[in-house]
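Contributing new records

If you add data, match the layout below exactly. Sequence lines come first and carry their own label; structure lines follow with theirs. Keep one chain per record. Anything else will be rejected by the validation script.
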Amino acid sequence: MNFTEQTSTLNILNRIAKIDEFKGRWESIGQLVPGRLKALQRVANMESAAAMGRLKGILCTDRQAGEFLAGKAQAATLSGEEQAVITGFSNVLKMVNESYDQVSFIKNHVLQMHDLIITGNVQKPAQEADSTSQLNELISGTSAALTEGVLHPLLVAANFSFHFWHMHPFRQGSERLSWLLTRLLLLRSGYYYLPYGSIEHFLERRLKDYKGKLKFTFVGEPVDSDQEAWLETFLNAMIDLQDNISAKINREKELLKLKAPHLEIIRVVQEHGRSDISGIMAATGMNRNTLKIRLRKLVAEKHLVQNGRGKSTYYTLPDLHLR
């Protein structure tokens, strides 16, 4: 092994150690009341659905996707097909997050998840895999690797996502399914913090660099050396994710130190995504002048962001994604 290979291996091991250190501390890090964890999960689902949509070429922001999924917007800019894509992904994402321990990593469940993504109904099969034998081999090999425990679960998940993504076993939905199955593998391997952040968001941000390193032997078949580039991309996205979750958890804990009226204002903005003074007054019953003073304090302390001016002013939460 030359110096470059040693350095690369050391970097990978250091990344895995950092991810597993966070995994081990999650029980103490994630000490929030259940209602606040649920709120973080709702935001993460919105971010994941929006990121997946953009990866598929759908032009939407996190907020637009969230308002659409919450039924608060007509989503006029989204076609019926685009709305179905985002809804299908979001529904299966929730199922994976909430029932990962009941969804075995077997071919039948993989096909059912695909049908749910495409048709929203496992009683109406969408399509069998175009490369059934390859898919069967990948699923059984991945299951065996996790059961045997010889390879680290992060390496197994990265290897699966690499091959599934490039195999593209279905005519529709392969990329969406690859992220969901990778999430399922990680949750079943004990990475229980995944529902509170969007791995899809951070993969989206890092895929451009990864795709720039791709080399193909011929159309559709990546060379083996690309796996190392993918592993690096995958592990870096996981580290981005855990840093983002830490920031969100720390922010929630800081909010709990606020006085009740200030916290009440923030919760109104959290619930609606954005709120103006009239909306906050209606929800809290606060006097306008008192509310303005409290809003100025929350903006100054960076708990809220003021957008617009005059009558068009509204308030949002700070963006906690890594820039």
